[in-house]
Amino acid sequence: MSHLTIRDLRVTFVTPTGPLAAVNGVDLDVAPGEIVALVGQSGSGKSVIAMATLRLLPANATVEGQIQLDGRDLGACSPAEMRQMRGADIGLIPQNPAASLTPVLSVEMQMRETLRRHGRALSDGPDLLARMGLPTRNSRRRRYPFELSGGMKQRALAALGIAGRPNLLIADEPTKGLDARLRSQIVETLATARHQDDMSMLIVTHDLDVAFALADRVIVLRNGRIVEQGRARALARAPGDPYTRALVAAQPSRMPVCSAGPRRGPPILTADAVGRRMKSGGLFARPVTAVADASLTLAQGETLGLTGPSGCGKSTLARILLGLLRPDTGTIAHDTAGPLSRHAQLLSQHPETAFDPRWRLERSVAEPFAIHRLGGPRATRAVVRPLLEALDLSPDLLRRFPRQVSGGQLQRLALVRALLVQPKVLILDEPTSMLDVLTQAQVMGAIRDLQDTRDLACLFISHDLDLAAAFSHRIAVMEDGRIVETAPSGQLRHAPQSDAARRLTEAFDAGRARVA
Amino acid sequence: ANAQTREMVMAAPRDLAPGAEDAYYVSSILYVWEPLVQFGPDGGPVPQLLSGWEMSEDATRWTFTLRDGVTWHNGDALTAEHVVGTFERIIQVSPKRSPFYSMHIDRAYPGLVAIEAQDALTFTMEFDSPRPTLPHQMVNFSSAVFHPDNFDADGNFNDLVIGTGPFRLVSHTPDQELVLERFEEYWGTPAGTERVVVRTIPDADTRAAALRAEEIVGVMDLGAMPPEQAASLAEDDRFELNAHPSSISHFLHVSGGDGPLSDMRLRQAISMAIDREAIVQLYRGFTTPTANFLNVNNPFHIDVPLVHDPEAAADLAAEVLGAERMDIRLIIPSWGVARYPYRAQAELIQFMLQPIGLDVTIQLLDRAAFNEVRQSGDYDLSLSTLGLPNADPITVFRDYFTRDGAMSVRNAIGYENPDMTALLEAALAERDLDLRAGIYADIQRLAATELPTIPLMNDTTVIVHHVDVVGYRQTIYGGTLNTAAWAD
Amino acid sequence: MKVAVTVLAAIAALCLAAPLVAPYAPDAIDMTDRLSGPSFEHWLGTDHLGRDLLSRLIWGGRSTILLALITTLATLALGLLTGALAGYFGGLVDDGIEGLVLLFQGLPGLSFMLAIAGTLGPGALSIFIAVVITSWADFARVVRAETLRLREAPWVEGLRALGAGHGRVLALHIVPNLLGPVLVLFTLRLGRIVLAIAALSFLGLGLQPPNAEWGVMINDARAYYRGAPILMLAPGLCILTVALCVNLIGDGLRDRLAEPDGREVLP
Amino acid sequence: MAAYVLRRLLLAAPVLFGATLIAFTLGVVAPGDPAAGALMQSGFDAPTQAEIAAMRTELGLDRPLPVQYVSWLGNVLTGDFGTSIYTDRSVSEEFARRLPTTLALAASALVLAILIGLPSGLAMGYWAQSFGDRAGRVVALALLSVPGFWLALMLILVFAETLRWLPTSGLGSWRHMILPALVLSTGMAALLMRLSRAVMLEALAGAHITAARARGLAEIRVVLIHALKGAAAPLITVIGGYFGAILGGSVIVEVIFAIPGIGQYAVEGIFRRDYPVIQGYVLFTAAVYVVFNLAADVACFVVNPQLRLGARVA
Ligand SMILES: Nc1ncnc2c1ncn2[C@@H]1O[C@H](COP(=O)(O)OP(=O)(O)OP(=O)(O)O)[C@@H](O)[C@H]1O
Ligand SMILES: Nc1ncnc2c1ncn2[C@@H]1O[C@H](COP(=O)(O)OP(=O)(O)OP(=O)(O)O)[C@@H](O)[C@H]1O
Ligand SMILES: [Mg+2]
Ligand SMILES: [Mg+2]
């Protein structure tokens, strides 16, 4: 008999714009000791299923269907009974580690109150934390959440999630937002926990690599419905449903490295030993060196990947190249006539904040025309139409406001706007980091197609080495504000020269290797 | 016995004991200290700490005899030396400010040459010129007597005030309350109650509420109870209302000089256009209309006819204005608004002057601005009051009716008339009191015609007390706290 | 909110059209008909000078609403200007303005309002100056914070990258985006300023007579409120109603204009 | 901690400095010549130009403004706010004498506001959109919209005059404080109600609350510890700031309830154009306000580990 049984689960949210069906009749079983992964695009209903199981959905949700744990109908339990079961029978590792620890209580305090609640010895606390890779540095010193890095928070939450020795652990995106090394660490810890405590698990993720590495069975969800399920290995090898297949193919780790070697066009944008210090915070804070002595050349028609650890100065360099920031030292040269603002365009990380929220997209998208006085509405439309078609966007989208449009669509609209003035250079600052894999693949594909037809030079900033390698001709590696190595993608991916590049690739691969 | 020891709680709008830095420490209405000379029932002077006085032939030397058997609150007997000490302190500290009357030896006793004790109970005052009305000038605050040991080197009080009155001040919490106790060795009729507490409650409505809640049993001081609230309290059987004309008069001061109202006919028109009876309504009938500059409580007051005739006023004004209308600026002081229905009064005057061709703009000014504007003459009319500092009107006559008189300057009145000047000089030179009274009457009649300032009303002070309290009545200045007693 | 808007609009329309709708002149004195209760001629009765209470309420509302509105608008304009400049340009401008804002925010507004109005003496101009001086900093702070947030917003940077000039960004993007929070602050402030004017009037620092103004009318009526409670109740209720409506509208606007991420526009 | 307090104090200094500038400016722009005013108060009915000029010299008014400011500031820094033109008494002594009364009043109002506003607001936030919540929001708005003096007169009428439960005015027992404190607290209670409701709503929406619930923790613990401990800091900050509003509001309350505090003194000063008193009032309230804001900051520092530890780490 299965441990968790869900039958015909339907969840509807009351929203200001009418009811929203998030889950539409899902059947799901988790057997004792089994790990089941729920995968699917963002918004497919994964978290809603998880929270419905715990009966912790917000008040605007209506739940229909049956959820049974060991034969007990959770829908019929009183709130007090539910509280008894939470943590003890069903544990949760919540989706959003940054916000899921109570900020004003130390991790140790939160651990102790959880242990006390479930009648466990308080002395187990340090051990639990240590098992999750959070050793007690100094037994007297409490750690508050703000002192922990994202990965440490995620591990602390994992420790708290299993503190009540639940039989079923629900882990919602346990690896999201983590870098490769941390990702592998969490996966390992969960795998160990399963064996040590004999737990069954429901893992919610959109990272197929994690799902295939960890789970016995994988369930693919789309729009609140199950499209396919099967044993992990079988599914990884031969995905049946076209949606699953697209999902698998969109994983950057499964994309081929860009094979078209470096382009030898004329240089179009050159940075020569630029440096920039930034003042931050209070009056007395010392300025930090964001970019130091960085040089790079972007040739016409090429894509140059730019990668490096967080905070190394990538975005700052991009802003300098665009002329948004003046460099303290060094020079920028561009081989274009007229203002740089017409010929170099930026596509930034957050599509949802790319447009003025109070303007209709129509007006926002056409704004470059107004700024540069390139023509009236008719001329604008003539240019916008073909771009929309090329990017597979419906023209009615233009009549909406930014918040009424999905992230992927917004990012493509931002691309339309950027391309409107026919720039020579496009700077892409993590253009897809907030998008799910399918949308990411779609946006990146669109950019590549446009580049080919328009002879565009792209600077592509990304954390994801696989993604950078798949779309860039060359990759530049940055560390502490300096460009330490620039090499063709294949070479950099497989045989990096500099220490910094080697450290970067090794860490990235280490994470992937352990998952795969 | 119970009634004897029950403390009587009263309230006043301001702190009646400004304290050690004040000229008098407490107001006279608390009966803690006593003056040499007090107001009589007709407003004239009667001896209080004195048993008699004598004027020299040339009216420059006065001999005063103190009442025998007066005891200070500290047990000492009152002597002429004490009185001389008191005057020496007045000379030392003059001018000294006080919320009641400022202490100023040159104004109260101009030309004083010497004050000397003759024996234990006799002292003399000598002046450089005749002072036939000296007792009139000594009334109340002007001749307050304090124990000379009561002062420090600067002439400030060194402890709670020591007086000779029927009450002793036993404690004082500034702006909150003061406590009086009956002084058992008082020379005259002992106070009617043993212990009185006077609370400071600035807001009139709150005072009325405190009365209704029976937290207090009576009110005192100027503006003790505004007429409207007093009338509504009097509808309640528990309270009794008592009113007495005060020495205060209400005026419509006029900025003369070369201002538009320097034309006497316009002033007369204004006076005739104003329906004083209507203004009196705002005071619930507690004031009396008057056309006389001199307050009705003054012993020299005469009746002058009061004319209210809007048509005649309009004709008179038309003589000056022709068909034109004139803009007139009426200023009112904000401190007056707290005590009198000044806003309404100003609005009413504005309304009444409209038909005679005067368009009045009202401007409410606070103290400093009001004083400044008044003095600069940058106004046409102002609502003002005047309280007589003593019983001899010559000072106020000269203050108002000569171009460089203090009040004339202060209000930029700018009135001057040779006839008036002659009368004032004659009055000063006249040593016979009856003859002087005749000249004072001429002055009043002339002022009523020429209207250097436009008199409106004689003020009345209204107090309200609980019926459990008897013997508490208002007088010209203050109430009879000394005879107030519990009903049984 | 709909009710509040309707009620407020009705009151405002009535008051602003005072010369047309008021049955009597506000300063038509009739000492023979003082303090009369409601009657057919005088729906709400007459005051202590026999003036028609209803007419004075209407005219008084005109003064109160206009004064509050003008004062709040001026405050708003000053706050908007300084806040937007500080937030958008940063640097020395910001340091200077922010210093002033911190100073004015660090001081107790009501006490200062009283001290300033008291020093300048009674009258509309003193009220205006006192309120503007003590309230602009709140607007400036909100506007500055919002502008900073907007300036840092990627889409503003994107616009700069597209080549948009400062003027365009400020006028077409920043200021319209500020309107939401500013509108909310404006309405909530308006309510407070109506009350502040009434409080100043109560202390004798109100409009000059014979202007009718609700706060002044309450103050004038204090002596008569036992005999004629309506003299005090009516303007009191008017102030309460207007302040309540304005606050309700402010609240409603706040909910309606809440950012898409659910962040409330103001605390 | 000491370093944090020191830094806050450093930030408070310019504010106080600005307050002295404003106070001084008020004295300068005030209509009326202080010299003439002082003379008239001391009994000169119509001072001559010569007397005024002498008085100007005596008061130092003939010096350039910056010099006057510096010497005035020097006096202020030594606690000498000058003497009242009207009573000739030291302004700082008068304020020192009255301040405890006003502080007691303000503190009572603060306690009442917290007792009324906080629990009801938190409850409204917890049961958001319930009937009680909706009613509470309207009540809070109504309280915000009621003119304070009007409420004061009505409360006196009902509770003191008619029911006689409480005294109308004055000082004495704690019963004297109830009505004034109640009037003074309404605005703040209403604001606190709205704020604590918003804080509660926001706190409950946090992901850490869902996480704490998912661990099976008792609801009361979730609400009181996990939600509210973190929300304490904004509440404390705001309460500290409201203290200033209460000080300003105390003026009317002190006048109506005959409470001899600094507000009453300020009103007297205003009506007598006693500008050292007005200046003193401005400075005193500014100082008290700054002190309470500082105290609130320190309290936040204590309840918020991030500030506490962040300061140590940095
Ligand atoms: N409280 C809510 N109110 C309204 N709609 C909601 C609410 N919570 C979730 N939804 C909607 O339900 C759908 C499913 O959301 P869910 O959080 O389960 O997605 P998900 O698969 O977990 O996505 P992600 O990978 O981004 O976490 C989404 O369309 C979302 O907008
Ligand atoms: N506006 C700013 N003010 C102060 N410091 C800044 C500012 N922008 C960037 N920095 C600092 O400059 C350094 C480089 O920042 P940058 O944003 O360029 O890094 P990045 O490589 O893009 O990082 P990430 O991968 O996290 O986006 C960091 O230390 C950052 O803190
Ligand atoms: Mg999710
Ligand atoms: Mg970046």
Question: What distinguishing features does this structure have?
Answer:
heterotetramer; A: 516 residues; alpha/beta; 6-stranded mixed beta sheet; 19 strands; 37% helix; B: 488 residues; alpha+beta; 5-stranded mixed beta sheet; 16 helices; 21 strands; 29% helix; globular; binds adenosine-5'-triphosphate; binds magnesium ion
Low-confidence stretches of chain C: 259-267
- Globally, the shape of chain C reads elongated
- Mean pLDDT of chain A, rounded to whole units? 82
Question: Largest sheet of chain A, if any?
Answer: 6 strands, mixed
Q: Indicate the structural class of chain A.
A: alpha/beta
Order of helices and strands of chain C: HHHHHHHHHH
Euclidean distance between termini CA atoms of chain A? 31 Å
How many beta-strand elements of chain A? 19
Spatial order of strands in the largest sheet of chain A: 6-7-8-3-9-10
Mean pLDDT of chain C: 82
> Largest interface, and how many residues on either side?
C-D, 43 and 49 residues
In terms of DSSP E residues, the strand content of chain A is: 25-35%
The Cα radius of gyration of chain C reads 22 Å
Shape of chain A: globular
Number of helices of chain C: 10
Largest sheet of chain C: none
Backbone CA Rg of chain A: 25 Å
Cα(first) to Cα(last) distance of chain C is 19 Å
Quick description:
With 516 residues, chain A is α/β, with parallel strands linked by helices.
Task: Give structural notes.
The complex is a heterotetramer of chains A (516), B (488), C (267) and D (314). With 516 residues, chain A is α/β, with parallel strands linked by helices. Helices cover 37% and strands 26% of the residues of chain A. In chain A, a hairpin with a 2-residue loop joins strand 1 and strand 2. In chain A, helix 6 packs parallel to helix 7. The mean pLDDT of chain A is 82. In chain B, the strands form six sheets. A six-stranded mixed sheet of chain B has the order 15-19-14-18-16-17. The longest helix of chain B has 18 residues. Chain B is globular. By secondary structure, chain C is mainly alpha-helical. Chain C is 72% helix and 0% strand. Chain D is an all-alpha fold. Chain D is globular, with a radius of gyration of 24 Å. Chain D starts with a helix and ends with a helix. Bound molecules: adenosine-5'-triphosphate (ATP) (2 copies) and magnesium ion (2 copies). One magnesium ion binds next to helix 1 of chain A. The site of one magnesium ion has 3 residues of chain A, from helix 11.
